[in-house]
Amino acid sequence: MTADHHLPFIRSLPKAELHLHIEGTLEPELMFELARRNGIALPYCSVEALRAAYRFDDLQSFLDLYYAGASVLLTESDFYDMTMAYMRRAHEDGVVHTEIMFDPQTHTARGVGMATVFAGIARALREAREELGITSYLLLSFLRHLSEEDAQHTLTQALPLREHYADLWVGIGLDSAERGNPPEKFARVYARACELGLRLVAHAGEEGPADYVRNALDVLKAERIDHGVNSEQDPALMQRLIDEQVPLTVCPLSNLKLCVVPTLNEHNLARMLRQGVLVTVNSDDPAYFGGYIAQNYAACAQALELEREELMQLARNSIVASFLPDADKHRWLTRLDEITV
Ligand code: HPA
Ligand code: ZN
Hints:
alpha/beta, TIM Barrel, eight-stranded parallel sheet, 17 helices, binds hypoxanthine, binds zinc ion
């Protein structure tokens, strides 16, 4: 039996995708199309040559290609096309709600306006809500290899747009190179965002140590941890995650491709799930890591021998861990309860 035979059941489960970088959904075909449209030269002669370059040793080797790839995004339509392609793909996988991260600094540093980035992504998300019935929230993510001052400036640039995108933009995140850029570096910008009523998430414990997870919780007051797989290094932290039901947005195929784990069989997702950690499964940067959300569930079902009841629990966790209002959570959880395993 292959991982694929799990796909129909997995796709039938209403689920939320909570850890997704929209720039990481840019498939090579669309990257070439946008490069042509915008007169930008890519250092690869074909889609196949580009895809063949997607072999990574660690997070940084991926980030180098990911930021280079994003350089084809210039206009509102570029952001719209990329986002709409993801929403259609997510719909096929049974995603009913998404909380999407985007990296404005990657674009504003190239002279693309903050308003252009918001406008293109938001147009697709609003259209997807109408046409596909998928709801979405946006998490504006700061690049942690840049300074806190740069993050503060980025937040200041985005705030005038808040009212116009009040239906979508609900929170902030923290991504990019983790090691050497600990959560404490962003304490003030997180405190400011918290004051402003924004929801708080942060990447921690992907390549960084369990301490980064603890400080994301204690110093940044993050409500949800992106990745968090290295929490297992610290039993007291693990117990806290269970007691406080802190959600972890785990990305198994990402962890495999970035060598966070040597094989999927050695991934701690199932162990954490069985211990009662509120883990969810997500795709992170599916265009780069070889699988959208259902493929992440299916690969884990296969490698970790997850039962159907456990796949259901992962879908349930994704709804519980989302920032949806309680009434919406209740509606999706009821729908999940109606599915027979
Ligand atoms: N980790 C850190 N930064 C990122 C990632 C990730 O997995 N994906 C896109 N930016
Ligand atoms: Zn990520």
